[in-house]
UniProtKB/TrEMBL annotation:
Gene3D superfamilies: NAD(P)-binding Rossmann-like Domain, ornithine cyclodeaminase, domain 1. Transmembrane segments: none annotated. Belongs to the ornithine cyclodeaminase/mu-crystallin family. SUPFAM superfamilies: NAD(P)-binding Rossmann-fold domains. This is Ornithine cyclodeaminase.
Length: 354
């Protein structure tokens, strides 16, 4: 069946199917192709509906909806962030998403997005680094070696050529697990005993920690001139990773300023502190890295267009792979106005009186 053959049947990509899809394509190829979709949509930035994500915050975490549309397709993601979940054997972040046709309003895809969010976050980080990292950078420090760390490493290797990693986590077992998972993938890996040790000699610094609090993962003295900082972990109000002084020394690049000023590292700064929108760099409207001494900071919080790109990419893989299930999601009466009659006929078929 084609994905459009029966409008009441919606392709559903389960966790199992997503894993099979990623492995069938290959992780590096998947990230590279996904990055191309993300970059394409950043270049089309002005076409998109844009709004900060709709967030419901609690003491334990946050639940968010992330919608956008390019006028032809509509997409949204449901996602949570609950740092305490790890202690209970649960994922910190889970997600699912929908892609729909604007013309009819009918959904065209329902998919898991826990794995897909990790992939799109890493792909976005690496796309940004294409424009912002020092030329020829090969060494990256990753501070915070949780669920996102391997994806970040592989994306940077596939897209920017990073092949040396310096890992640090407050839990040494997390660094050991990360190193083990990446063994045989072409990296030289050093497990470090502190954040300070991890950043020594690194041209790119990725911070990707999970605690929901103001934190100082990087202090000002740890950051020398010429580095690129990929700040991933600060992604909600009250959660940051970098000392404010680092921000004041950096050229800061963001996805959507109204959202980043609420959730990103720049929540520490004045509301009018100058930032550069990443789409403008990709579209050639403003410069990215402009000198060897420049400190560039990608204040990554994740934006709905990136999920939209990921949904588009996955949908485009379904025909060739067949890695989806057919979900009977939408009512499809013979006469569109006769929804109750459809119910009656179903009851008669089953021998049930309405």
């Amino acid at each position: 069946m084609t994905t459009a053959a029966k409008l009441n049947i919606v392709p559903f990509v389960s966790v199992d199917s997503m894993m099979k899809l990623v492995l069938a394509i290959g992780v590096e190829r998947f990230l590279t192709e996904l990055a191309a979709y993300i970059e394409e949509d950043f270049r089309r930035w002005e076409l998109f509906d844009k709004t900060p994500r709709i967030a419901s915050h609690s003491h334990d975490g946050v639940i968010e909806l992330m919608p956008t549309s390019d006028g032809r397709l509509y997409g949204f993601k449901y996602v949570n962030g609950h740092p305490k979940n790890t202690r209970e054997g649960l994922q910190t972040v889970t997600a699912f998403g929908v892609l729909a046709d604007v013309g009819s309003g009918y959904p065209m895809l329902l998919t898991e997005m826990t794995i897909l969010t990790a992939l799109r976050t890493a792909a976005t980080s690496a796309v940004a680094a294409k424009y912002l990292a020092p030329n020829g950078a090969r060494t990256m420090a990753i501070i915070g070696n949780g669920a996102q760390s391997e994806f970040q490493a592989i994306a940077f290797k596939a897209i920017t050529g990073i092949d040396r990693l310096r890992l640090y986590d407050i839990d040494p077992s997390a660094s050991r697990r990360c190193a083990k998972n990446l063994a045989g993938m072409g990296f030289g890996i050093t497990i470090c005993s502190s954040g300070q040790e991890a950043v020594e000699g690194a041209e790119v610094i990725t911070t990707v920690t999970a605690d929901k609090q103001y934190a100082t993962i990087l202090t000002d003295n740890m950051v020398g001139s010429g580095v690129h900082i990929n700040a991933v972990g600060g992604d909600c109000p009250g959660k940051t990773e970098l000392h404010r002084d680092i921000l004041l020394r950096s050229d800061i690049f963001v996805e959507f300023p109204p959202q980043t000023r609420i959730e990103g590292e720049i929540q520490q700064l004045d509301p009018d502190h100058p930032v550069i929108e990443l789409w403008q760099v990709m579209a050639g409207k403003v410069a990215g890295r402009s000198s060897d001494k420049q400190i560039t900071l990608f204040d990554s919080v994740g934006f709905a267009t990136e999920d939209f790109s990921a949904l588009r990419y996955v949908r485009d893989q379904l025909q060739a792979t067949g890695l989806y299930e057919e979900l009977d999601l939408l009512a499809d009466p013979d006469e569109p106005r006769d929804l109750f009659g459809m119910l009656l006929r179903a009851g008669a078929k089953e021998g049930v009186v309405a």
